[in-house]
């Protein structure tokens, strides 16, 4: 298997292998493919395919999110060729990773669909009609038979012009969280935990304070009650003593009166 390059690549691509062919797009032994009109982002608000045009020229891929990208060009692979595809170095260095296939089978014809993932820490912005993809062509030793070509029934990407709905539905099935988003959620949970611990300690402190206050008030009330009982007892004893003194005073007065009368009457007889 030998890769085409230089003059051989130019002659090969002149045979309507790639639509909108431009010789200036040949870079070393590869050809640059540009971003087409249709893109789909997993975190799109409406969950629909976005259409890029003169008014909406860019797509922003957030960290940790998948995006489906369709090429502008249609590629046709002859029966004696095999193609290899990749993303250019610049978006790769920003963290954009191609997670779809890396080759195009003999017999395929249609626009190429790239499934990419932003593994970087920042958003990546791509512009419509800008070259972000590369394709290389390798020559097979012999042509494949018609039964071995990609154009047989059951090959879903043949004559592909737009993003298939089955891939959109698959990416809609669940929420995708980037590492940074997960870290943020973890920090939020830890923050809530710390706040809850602070509130718990605060409530315990308030409860202890209230408990001590109740105990203090209860003890004070008990002491007050005991003091009141003691005062009442003291007053009662005092009143009893006063009554006793009064009673004794009356008795002494009677005795004095009898003594005085006996002195006035001889022999104690009136």
TrEMBL record:
<dbReference type="GO" id="GO:0008829">
    <property type="term" value="F:dCTP deaminase activity"/>
</dbReference>
<keyword id="KW-0378">Hydrolase</keyword>
<keyword id="KW-0546">Nucleotide metabolism</keyword>
<dbReference type="GO" id="GO:0006229">
    <property type="term" value="P:dUTP biosynthetic process"/>
</dbReference>
<dbReference type="InterPro" id="IPR033704">
    <property type="entry name" value="dUTPase_trimeric"/>
</dbReference>
<dbReference type="InterPro" id="IPR011962">
    <property type="entry name" value="dCTP_deaminase"/>
</dbReference>
<dbReference type="InterPro" id="IPR036157">
    <property type="entry name" value="dUTPase-like_sf"/>
</dbReference>
<protein>
    <submittedName>
        <fullName>Deoxycytidine triphosphate deaminase</fullName>
    </submittedName>
</protein>
<dbReference type="Pfam" id="PF22769">
    <property type="entry name" value="DCD"/>
</dbReference>
